[in-house]
Design brief:
The chain has eight helices and eight strands; from the N terminus they run αβαβββαβααβαβαβα. By secondary structure, the chain is α/β, with parallel strands linked by helices.
Length: 276
């Protein structure tokens, strides 16, 4: 006996179609992730010694709202330890990660090791505070351009700076630098009365602190023929010394055809390293 198709009341069918349409519309037009910015947060709490420290030792925090357990990129600007100011590169925005842009004190108002002390204090602030904004403190990446990369490497390789805050530098998820100084920074060499073209490796050189158990390190530079003051070779030497000391998770990327200014082509590589 032939059975007729099941009859669905028109009103019920109409409501079903309406629900399907609403769901499809919601999926196609879901609200994008909203981001919040907090500016000029002091990372020294109440330990500020003078007006200049109070002025410079601040950070900006940019993070996805209503999200949890996202990675955080700590970003140190360049400028040769003599200039520059905190700013979040636009290529790092809207990527599902938090970004912390850091100001630090500059020469000639201060000398070494104040720059490194500030960098360590800022990184410690992130470890101690990012969770309250939804971030995962086990996914903190320390990154920077030029002298900002130098500071990133010093904080990550010389363990004493974070140890002051009872933080193991090996808990940094990764160190990613763009055109970083790995020998003693040229401004610190000037403090010694040296020419900036005279190389030096001392305790203010990241390569001096090469060790096998450090966090993963990615070194990105411009073309060796176009880079600033042998920056490619400095990074190549750091990679070599890391390998000699048993460090396994390191990479050197040379961007052919580029000079020192590699933020624009370098940041997509940075994001790829943290899988974003």
């Amino acid at each position: 006996m032939l059975k007729l198709p099941l009859k669905i009341p028109f009103k019920m069918l109409n409501n079903t179609i309406r629900v399907i349409f609403i769901l499809a519309f919601s999926l196609n037009y879901a609200q994008p992730t909203q981001y919040k910015s907090l500016t000029d947060l002091s990372y020294y709490d109440n330990q500020v010694a003078d007006a200049y420290q109070q002025e410079r030792c601040k950070l900006d925090l940019y993070f996805p709202e209503d999200a949890q357990n996202f990675p955080t990129i700590v970003w140190f600007h360049g400028g040769g330890l003599t200039s520059g100011s905190k700013a979040i590169p636009k290529q790092l925005k809207d990527k599902g990660v938090a970004v912390v842009a850091v100001n630090y004190r500059l020469h000639p108002k201060v000398n070494a090791p104040k720059y490194i002390e500030d960098a360590a204090a800022a990184v410690a602030w992130v470890f101690n505070n990012i969770e309250q904004y939804g971030g995962d403190p086990s996914q903190v990446y320390v990154c920077g351009f030029s002298s900002g990369g130098f500071l990133s490497l010093m904080v990550g390789l010389d363990q004493k700076w974070l140890k002051k805050y009872n933080i193991d530098s090996n808990t940094i998820k990764g160190i990613i630098t763009l055109s970083a100084t790995t020998f003693t920074n040229h401004t610190i060499r000037k403090e010694y009365g040296m020419k900036i073209t005279q190389p030096l490796i001392d305790h203010y050189a990241p390569v001096y602190h090469s060790r096998g158990d450090a966090s993963p390190i990615t070194l990105i530079t411009g073309d060796r023929e176009n880079e600033f003051f042998g920056m490619y070779e400095e990074n190549a030497y750091l990679k070599r010394m890391l390998k000699i000391n048993g460090h396994q998770q390191n990479e050197l990327i040379e961007l052919g055809g580029y000079g020192h200014e590699i933020i624009k082509p370098g940041i997509p590589l940075l994001l790829r390293k943290i899988n974003y």
